[in-house]
């Protein structure tokens, strides 16, 4: 059936947990592209046939015309599916810029296509240039602050760092009381966890 | 300096230790920013950029930062400092979140925004950002899909060359429902063209309505969405 593979691509995509992507399905993707080419060839062949029979291509409504229409619509449907697949993945990838920062986590990088990685970099750069123009870092303060300070446990050896009000040694498993704005960047990178009081 | 920032931020006015007329309290920049933020958060499409308000808020945040630093240095009661700090953090959150929500809307619908009159609602920096979003997405889609499709089907805006209009542009859903509240009684307001659907806005009552018909009221500030 025409268009089945393309819709399968999207079904596989939406079977993921929201906000998660699986590896770019190059095999099926390429197959759908091939299908598109095949539809296009059939379409052109039918158009030629109509012309060769000396009929007006705009007004003819014979079997060949409807055959051509079906190929045209199947092609469009495939295009929409492919676009939706790439577009929705791109949306998830770009949302990661807000969640984890300017570097794609390794497990996402493995699943992303080359073009997707490039898109992430470009988009990330666009956001950064906006933030430097308005002189505000918008990736901190993601949740409304309740208390200016928060208690955190360090999950990885970070070492000595300079923060806005202190320069603690962030050794693994140590517990600190930090400014929320300082702690947030570490939390989003998975280097710290917040201890709810 | 301290009194200046108290006025600007309404510091303590909520707890009642400063006698502030409620009508004045509603027009402090913090309240205005909060309102702009709430409206932006709840509206499905991007609203007019509050450029003066953002500018003022930024200046006041800077002033507050200086105040906090000064207090920190001259040995003022740590509790007072931490209260100022908290107030500062909250205002900063409001401002950041406001700008962030707008960017996220731009990320989602850059092409649609650039094609409609919503384009003029963006700040200059936002317009630049929107352009880059569009270019990056177009490059990505062209590289991954469009350049590999047959001739006639390669447009990013149209499904094929036989489409007369741009029919592949994602746009915000304006028919969605929003919660809204009016500060004053507005009387009867017509929601549809035939005049069958009329709502009577009573002050401070909460309504759940479709966004599109009440859009003009939100734009001119007669009602707020929450």
TrEMBL record, chain A:
GO BP term (any one): DNA strand elongation involved in mitotic DNA replication
Domain DNA replication complex GINS protein PSF1 C-terminal per the UniProt entry, residue ranges: 146-195
Residues annotated as domain GINS subunit: 63-134
Recorded GO CC terms: GINS complex
Superkingdom as given in the UniProt entry: Eukaryota
Name assigned to this protein: Dna replication complex gins protein psf1
Keyword Repeat: no
Pfam families (UniProt xref): PSF1_C, Sld5
Gene3D superfamilies tied to this protein: 1.20.58.1030
Keywords noted in UniProt: DNA replication, Nucleus
Annotated compartments: Nucleus
The keyword Nucleus is annotated on this UniProt entry: yes
Family in the record: Belongs to the GINS1/PSF1 family.
Entries under SUPFAM superfamilies matching the protein: GINS helical bundle-like
UniProtKB/TrEMBL annotation, chain B:
Principal cellular location given in the protein's record: nucleus
Sorted UniProt keywords: DNA replication, Nucleus
GO biological process assignments: DNA-templated DNA replication; double-strand break repair via break-induced replication
InterPro entries from the UniProt entry: GINS_A, GINS_bundle-like_dom_sf, GINS_Sld5, SLD5_C, Sld5_GINS_A
Pfam families the record matches: Sld5 (PF05916), SLD5_C (PF16922)
GINS subunit domain sequence ranges: 78-143
DNA replication complex GINS protein SLD5 C-terminal domain residues: 172-225
Residues spanning the signal sequence: none
SUPFAM superfamilies (alphabetical): GINS helical bundle-like, PriA/YqbF domain
Cellular compartment(s): Nucleus
Presence of keyword Flavoprotein: no
Annotated GO CC locations: GINS complex
Family note: Belongs to the GINS4/SLD5 family.
Function summary: The GINS complex plays an essential role in the initiation of DNA replication.
Name of the protein: DNA replication complex GINS protein SLD5
